[in-house]
Amino acid sequence: MSAGSINFGRYGKSFQEGLAQLIFEDRPFADQITEVFDVSFLELEYLRVFVKKILSYREKYDKHPSVEAAISILRTDLEKEDQIVQKQVRDYFAKVHTRELTDSEYIKETSLDFCRKQNLKEAMMKSVTLLQSCSFDEISTVINEALKLGSETNFGYDYILDFEERYKPRHRRPITTGLKEVDKICGGGLGQKEMGVVIAPTGAGKSMILVHLGTEAIKQEKIVIHYTLELSDRVIANRYDSCLTGYPLSDLSNFKEDIYKQIKDINGKLIVKEYPTKSASTKTIRTHLSRLIKRGIKPDMIIVDYADLLRPTIVRKERRNELEGIYEELRAISSEFKCPLWTASQTNRSGLNAEVITMEQISEAFNKCFVADFIFSVSRSIQDKQKNQGKIFIAKNRNGPDGLIFNIFMDTSNVNIKIAPKAATAQANLNPVALNPKMQKKVLQKRYEKFRKGRK
């Protein structure tokens, strides 16, 4: 194919570097685009050289090069190139082979569309010549072949061809929960494409916990999009004020200037979007997030307060089936926008008096537990609320152990939440069914000793 002066120059340097990176890293995409791709489409010489080496290896060995093979090629197979180009190629590879692209879908879609159009233009030019000889069948064949090239070729994960892919390091990029003991057991916090759920009965502080999690992300200079379906956006924003500064919620107006001085230089970003209860669906959230991205605001964390108050996209006979669908769709949003998503769920009536809330107390739809990566519950009796205390139970954890219980300090007057010291000592008084086998044994032994002494 002859591309002439047509190239990706108008899309910029970073786009072309990302495209070359995808051709190297994404084997199915490379299979698809190489049907319509010409290296001359790349404006930059060092990228043309890099991609030529990758495509030559694929053609010669009939397989995609590994990282080790690429390193070897760049060390030994660049002698014919200019010294400056050699350095540029090696510097480029050193920069990109460990980074993760954040706009890969855009680069794929745009580059494929560009290449397929150029391929179709060439086929149409060829058809003009064929038209003079009235070769209609041949014209039809040429056009149809051009339309087929570059179409979807990814039919799934190939166990052999994609061998290297499953051994590449995965970067979760977790965002801390602000609770060190919890971070330790879940790999540093909730990671990209993961969904966390906070379970609690009404009045236990689900929204406070979600604000705490959002605040910790902001402190890490992340962009947090907080959807509220129950409280007003101003109420949620005030809670962030209190959580970030420590001033009590009841007295924020008296410290207005001091609060602004503390928050104005925070590098993180918070957007609170309010929707009336049951008025927004997961489609509403997805549309809003897409609009934000078009304005240059890409979320690092999404918070939905809370999922049970979303309107289902498909109305079903039973409420539990609607809730199950909502949680599945939220998990899809987390994957689509490549960031952690936190939400909350209310317990059923049995959770009101439970000393430790397990997944059995989840209201309506137990199946919503299946799609979550991390679930913890918050239980607070009347006495706990008076003493600013409570318990959290790690109900599910894909990245570490679960079945653990921690005592917490929770002051809702200024959204101050942290793990209480010596949390493990309180576990002796808990229901042994909720504990792991080792803790069950310890609890039962202590209860037996207490019972035996009482009989004496």
How large is the count of helical segments? 16
Shape: elongated
The whole-number mean of residue pLDDT values reads: 83
Q: What level of helicity do the residues show?
A: 40-55%
Strand coverage percent:
5-15%
Structural class by secondary-structure content: alpha/beta
| Distance between the ends | 95 Å
The CATH H-level superfamily of the largest domain is: P-loop containing nucleotide triphosphate hydrolases
How many individual domains? 2
Task: Describe the protein in words.
- 34% of the residues are buried.
- The longest helix has 29 residues.
- Helix 1 packs parallel to helix 3, helix 6 runs antiparallel to helix 7 and helix 9 packs across helix 10.
- This protein has two domains: 158 residues; 242 residues, Rossmann fold.
- The chain is of the alpha/beta class and 456 residues long.
- Helix content is 45%, strand content 12%.
